Amino acid sequence: MKRTELTEMQQRVLLFLLENDGSAFRDISDKTESNPNAIKKAIDELMELGLVYDKREDTFPRRRLIYLTEYGKEVAKRLKEIVEIINESSKHPQKPSVEV
């Protein structure tokens, strides 16, 4: 069965790539201040889900660049919207309404 949830690290990668598509693996790790092994695992899993793909640069040093697929762009955009909603609602906490 295919996984239906995204880990925090996968979400972090998707959101980073939404603003920095075509980034080198090392840049993703450095800019997100994340463990390189965790980033590698997240990217591999995102590739399996069809959300990202990699491509080697044509010129030296031929870094591995990571790109969002069209599907990945859609998922990342929606994820960003969710994060923005959560951030906005945390500024204006609402008490749950309970009818008795």
Short recap of the structure:
The protein has a single domain, classed as Orthogonal Bundle (Arc Repressor Mutant, subunit A). The protein has 4 helices and 3 strands, in the order αβααββα.
Total strands = 3
Largest sheet: 3 strands, antiparallel
Task: Let me know the CATH homologous superfamily.
Answer: Winged helix-like DNA-binding domain superfamily/Winged helix DNA-binding domain
- The fraction of residues in strands falls at 5-15%
Order of secondary-structure elements: HEHHEEH
Tell me which CATH architecture applies here: Orthogonal Bundle
Question: Alpha-carbon distance between the termini?
Answer: 42 Å
Task: List the total number of helices.
Answer: 4
**Main β-sheet, spatial strand arrangement:** 1-3-2
Helix content: 40-55%
Domain HTH marR-type: 1-100
GO molecular function: DNA-binding transcription factor activity
Pfam families: HTH_24
Protein name: HTH marR-type domain-containing protein
